[in-house]
DNA sequence: AACTTTAGCAACCGCAGGTGC
DNA sequence: CGCACCTGCGGTTGCTAAAGT
């Protein structure tokens, strides 16, 4: 196929669309895109250079006025998009690596189509790139495996995963793992408990709860990790339920969830942590044919169906500590 | 070789949330 | 409080190259 490292000269968007035409006469367009004389469509190398050098000199932001200040005949939106998705030095070009693919899968299972959030956890990748990769590769891959790419659940639970694939089917949800309902130390938590997201999913309605579960999981992690007394720890049912209403009894969950959720996500991209977690899981769940939470794609395993279980592991729990933890566990 | 279909992805659009007045 | 503006996000479009016929 085409070279994934597309230069601006290979950009394909045509120079007019159904809205926001060159004359700026379409009422539905935003002002910045409808101004007369603004260029649209593919960026030229010259424009790229002007934009990049200007931002290097003046910094990002003030996109609305940036084109004028930089001397570009583009709207601010277009400039921002070009910078964010292509010109930024931190943007990593090239194929998505298998471990990145696996991470995207796991994060999408947690977050849904929150591309910017997913991209924020994958260094060098943009939301647009991940979105495109998902739409062109991963969603099709999941469908071919009989998995709904939106819910990450089997498309038809009655049917087994197609066996035509050369890769093993995803592991079935294992027996429900303990939900954090008791007072546990971080040590105990990271050693002995894994939240079974699949089982949690089954307890929730489709839709509105779906993407709020991570916050509930993170809230549970927070409570356990911070040694909150037994009586103050709600069950996961409560956490999930109260993520969907504004019950002030659990407002503390909302307060902490962003940070903890962030930490929780960080834990997902901690390779070593996952290695340790794999080790632990293999001890606790020998019946799993394939480790579902591996962060690198094992040979012969395509990553589909990962994260049937997710580790409960705050990111501030250092790798060294965790390695030690694993060692202790084996003693 | 010519044509059609499919895959890949940059760029666009509309909307929503945040912020300042 | 309401409004306008700015920024960022997610969904979608549509062009080009590769693959297939």
From TrEMBL:
GO molecular function per UniProt: DNA binding
Pfam families on file: Myb_DNA-binding
Major location category of this protein: nucleus
Residue ranges constituting the Myb-like domain according to the UniProt record: 35-87, 88-138
Positions of the UniProt region annotated as Disordered: 1-33, 145-180, 280-300
Any one cellular-component term (Gene Ontology): nucleus
Keywords: DNA-binding, Nucleus, Repeat, Transcription, Transcription regulation
Subcellular location: Nucleus
Protein name in UniProt: MYB5
Organism: Lotus corniculatus
């Amino acid at each position: 196929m085409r070279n994934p490292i597309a230069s601006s000269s290979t950009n394909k968007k045509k120079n007019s669309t159904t809205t926001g035409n060159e004359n700026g006469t379409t009422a539905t367009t935003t002002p910045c895109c409808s101004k007369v004389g603004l260029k649209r469509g593919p960026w030229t190398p010259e424009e790229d250079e002007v934009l990049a050098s200007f931002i290097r000199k003046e910094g990002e932001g003030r996109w609305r006025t940036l084109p004028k200040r930089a001397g570009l005949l583009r709207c601010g939106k277009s400039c921002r998009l070009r910078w964010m998705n292509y010109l930024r030095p931190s943007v990593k070009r090239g194929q998505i690596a298998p471990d990145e693919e696996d991470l995207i899968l796991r994060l999408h299972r947690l977050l849904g189509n929150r591309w910017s959030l997913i991209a924020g956890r994958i260094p060098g990748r943009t939301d647009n790139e991940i979105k495109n990769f998902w739409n062109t590769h991963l969603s099709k891959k999941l469908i071919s495996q009989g998995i709904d790419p939106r819910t990450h659940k089997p498309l038809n639970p009655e049917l087994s995963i197609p066996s035509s694939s050369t890769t093993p089917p995803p592991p079935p949800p294992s027996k429900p793992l303990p939900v954090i309902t008791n007072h546990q130390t971080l040590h105990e938590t990271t050693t002995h408990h894994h939240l079974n997201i699949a089982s949690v999913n089954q307890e929730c309605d489709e839709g509105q709860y779906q993407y709020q579960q991570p916050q509930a999981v993170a809230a549970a992690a927070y409570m356990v990790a911070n040694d909150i007394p037994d009586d103050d720890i709600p069950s996961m049912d409560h956490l999930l339920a109260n993520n969907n209403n504004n019950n002030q009894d659990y407002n503390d969950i909302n307060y902490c969830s962003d940070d903890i959720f962030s930490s929780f996500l960080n834990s997902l991209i901690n390779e070593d942590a996952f290695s340790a977690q794999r080790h632990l899981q293999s001890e606790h769940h020998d019946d799993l044919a394939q480790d579902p939470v591996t962060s690198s794609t094992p040979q012969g395993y395509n990553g589909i169906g990962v994260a049937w279980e997710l580790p409960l592991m705050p990111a501030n729990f250092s790798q060294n500590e965790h390695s030690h933890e694993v060692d202790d566990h084996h003693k």
